[in-house]
Amino acid sequence: MMVPQNIPILTIGYGARTLDAFVDLLHTYHIEYLVDVRSAPYSRFKPEFSRDALAQTVVAQGVRYLYWGDVLGGRPDDSTCYIDGKVDYATIKTKAWYQQGIRRLETAFAQGQRVALMCSEGKPEQCHRSKLLAASLVERGVDISHIDETGALKSQEDVILALTGGQLYLFDEIPFTSRKRYTDAPDPRSHPDENLGDIEASMNDYSEDE
């Protein structure tokens, strides 16, 4: 039996890109599944990147679109994930809904699927893609790289070095939080998992934040 090749999971943000440039990068890196991990998958500044419009565009280009921002987003609807108004990523990692989303990505990696996690920030070091999702995946032995704002690939290690000023840490020792502080943390709610079906079946700072 053929063993699936270990194809890294990639991340990408639209940032200052046009929609055409974004789609071109998906093709350049042979992406089959675009997993939207925005908590709020809408953009006032770039409506073409809002959920429905983006899904229609990428599906027409042969890329499957999945929305998992309800479990892998950087601004969860769970008030216990906030400390002094900032999202505490260490707390998110303990949540069952988050762990379920990460396990789905582990499965995709084990199956050799070509997946890109997508958010709004062009620079991976400014996004929860690196500080939360990639950190969790690396801890589980999943290979992951980031498509940066220039379109080049950047390793998770390089992103973390940029975040820590060149100091090396174990990933679980870095107390990362969101860059922004939210005055009103959302009320707790349930995190539905209907969007977590098997993946086989299924202006840089203009952020809806993470």
Kindly describe this structure.
- 30% of the residues lie in helices and 14% in strands.
- It is of the alpha/beta class and 210 residues long.
- The strands form two sheets. A six-stranded mixed β-sheet has the order 3-2-6-1-7-8, with helices on both faces. The chain has a two-stranded antiparallel sheet with strand order 4-5.
- A hairpin with a 2-residue loop joins strand 4 (82-83) and strand 5.
Give me the Rg, rounded. Answer: 16 Å
Strand order of the biggest β-sheet: 3-2-6-1-7-8
The total beta strand count reads: 8
The number of helical elements comes to 7
Percent strand equals 5-15%
**Sheet bearing the most strands, described?**
6 strands, mixed
Shape: globular
- Terminus-to-terminus distance: 40 Å
Question: Mean pLDDT across all residues, rounded?
Answer: 84
- What proportion of the residues is helical, as a percent range? 25-40%
Low-confidence stretches: 185-209
Structural class assignment: alpha/beta
User: What is the string of helix and strand elements?
Assistant: EHEHEHEEHHEHEEH
